[in-house]
Please model this.
Amino acid sequence: MDANPASSQRRPLETAHAARELIELLEVLWERGKDMVSSTPVSASQLRVLYCLDRDEGINLRTLGKVLGSAPPSVSRLCDRLEALGFVQRLPSPVSRRELELHLTTRGKAYLHDLRAQRQEALLVVIDSMTPSARNALLKGLTSFQDALNDAGAVPQRSSSVKGVRSA
Model:
């Protein structure tokens, strides 16, 4: 444990700064990967919708809006655009006649698969250049970060009130 209180207070700030810089670099790398996948461009907001639908197949618009932190009209427009691209399909809910469920289409799933493969390949180039101990430290740090996000409730999760629901 660090005996210097100022140093221990500075550590989270330094870690947050390093994480922010890494995220910015990854965003550049991700955009490059997105451009390589398809001639069908999707915005960052639309991509977040695709990720949510991949994680929570059959989610409704209201719940999706809560997960994204967006107003219902905005979420509806995002889904309209994704439906027009052939990435999303709205289907009647078997639980409620008044609700529609959102599902990824085969084309939407293929887009995400290709995008993830491109991004993973770009990451592997960098990770392969790291020492085994650095890779292990990265894996441990990323796992701990994800656990902390989940523990803090920072990652919105879908209600499990519907039969057969997968949680995030």
Remarks:
- The chain has a mean pLDDT of 82.
- DSSP finds six helices and two strands in the chain.
